[in-house]
Write a structure and sequence with these properties.
Order of helices and strands: EEEHEEHEHHHHEHEHEEHH
Distance between the termini: 33 Å
Shape: globular
Helix content: 40-55%
Structural class: alpha/beta
CATH topology of one domain: Rossmann fold
Strand order of the largest sheet: 6-7-8-3-9-10
Bound molecules: adenosine-5'-triphosphate, magnesium ion
CATH class of one domain: Alpha Beta
CATH superfamily of one domain: P-loop containing nucleotide triphosphate hydrolases
CATH architecture of one domain: 3-Layer(aba) Sandwich
């Protein structure tokens, strides 16, 4: 059984069909890439998977359930979490606090009862902190646990956003252009990190990325969108030599 399945997912904004009858399936443990030119509908796909928008038509199935039209907070609780094309962190909170906030989503008793200083809530908060620290270690940010996120360099902010998403203990992680703005060294570290997230935590990963070297080296399968429609789907070797993909996006073989 697939973990995520889109069946002819379509969304229209007025006259514009931003995502047009897109279908794909992710098995548990997949590293799957979503690529295509600017405005192709990639982020919009994430928005319909995570319940930001309900699709105009089509179906989305996750972990054996029909989640079409389910609101985003419910979808997050069912195990899908994402990062954003533009970093969204709590800038005045430390790295550790940012990840702890992510964990609150899983332990929803904590927020309310912590305010009443209930011992059980304090214990749970300590556990969340310990778990958050483990995640900071995984993304190699343990040394900046107490640094305010706004004071971190850009590449580290991106990694912190991933750690915060992981604190919700997702089954599926969606990354929207995680390598954007990173230098080659940071990209290489990120690539290893995403592999580790899949290999160590067993999290399935769907990612959008414009850096073709990054996508081709990381992903096992790739879907190419253009003007909201699928133009190709397959392993990297097939995608990079596909004439339609070269014409619409790559420009020349990579
Ligand atoms: N809420 C919205 N209302 C109207 N149009 C929208 C909305 N969201 C997205 N669009 C349009 O849908 C199309 C697809 O946008 P989307 O952001 O998904 O592209 P993308 O593939 O992520 O591009 P990029 O690589 O530039 O991030 C664009 O034409 C965009 O303007
Ligand atoms: Mg986008």
């Amino acid at each position: 059984m697939s973990l995520l399945k889109l069946e002819q997912a379509t969304i229209k904004f007025g006259g514009l069909v931003a995502v047009n009858s897109v279908s794909f399936e992710l098995e548990k443990g997949d590293l799957f890439g979503l690529i295509g030119p600017n405005g192709a509908g990639k982020t919009t796909c994430f928005n319909i998977i995570t319940g930001v928008y309900a699709p105009t038509s089509g179906k989305i199935n996750f972990d054996g359930r029909d989640i079409t039209g389910t609101p985003s907070n419910k979808i997050a609780q069912q195990g899908i979490c994402r990062t954003f094309q533009n970093i969204r962190l709590f800038h005045s909170l430390s790295s550790l606090e940012n990840v702890v906030v992510g964990g609150f989503l899983r332990h929803k008793t904590v927020l309310g009862s912590a305010l009443c200083y209930l011992p059980s809530a304090i214990k749970e908060t300590d556990e969340l902190k310990a778990k958050a620290m483990e995640l900071l270690e995984l993304v190699d940010l343990a040394d900046v646990a107490n640094t305010r996120s706004r004071d971190l360099p850009y590449g580290k902010q991106r990694r912190l956003e991933i750690a915060r998403a992981l604190a919700t203990q997702p089954k599926l992680l969606l990354l929207d252009e995680p390598a954007a703005g990173m230098n080659p060294q940071e990209k290489m570290e990120l690539l290893q990190m995403v592999k580790k997230i899949r290999d160590v935590l067993g999290v399935t990963v769907l990612l959008i990325e414009h850096d073709m070297k990054f996508v081709m080296n990381l992903c096992e399968r790739i879907l190419v969108l253009d003007h909201g429609e699928e133009i190709a789907q397959g392993p990297p070797a097939e995608i990079r030599s596909n004439p339609k993909v070269i014409a619409a996006y790559l420009g020349e073989a990579v």
